[in-house]
Design a protein that fits this description.
87 residues; mainly alpha; 41% helix
């Protein structure tokens, strides 16, 4: 049995979408995140979304990581409800 040579593409090229983000970009905007933290009573997700729309060079993951490092959600004396406080 003889097989005829088959011609097919050996290389498949795909379009690759690459987002270039600066890993230390969030460090430049750390104080802006603190201002957002104290100026609002919104949920964590909405604070991260607002920060990401203001500064698109910062990734959501890096914003969330920094948010977890610098804040705690608790009710202190004199507070009417649970809010975020800087650690």
């Amino acid at each position: 049995m003889c097989f005829a040579p088959a011609y097919f593409p050996l290389k498949i090229e795909k379009a690759i979408k690459v987002e270039i983000t600066d890993n230390n970009a969030i460090e430049k905007h750390k104080f802006e995140l603190l201002r957002l933290l104290y100026s609002t009573l919104d949920a964590k997700v909405s604070i991260i979304e607002e920060m990401n729309t203001k500064y698109p060079d910062c990734s959501k993951k890096s914003i969330e990581r920094l948010f977890k490092e610098i804040s705690v959600r608790e009710k202190k004396d004199g507070d009417e409800r649970v809010v975020y406080h800087a650690t």
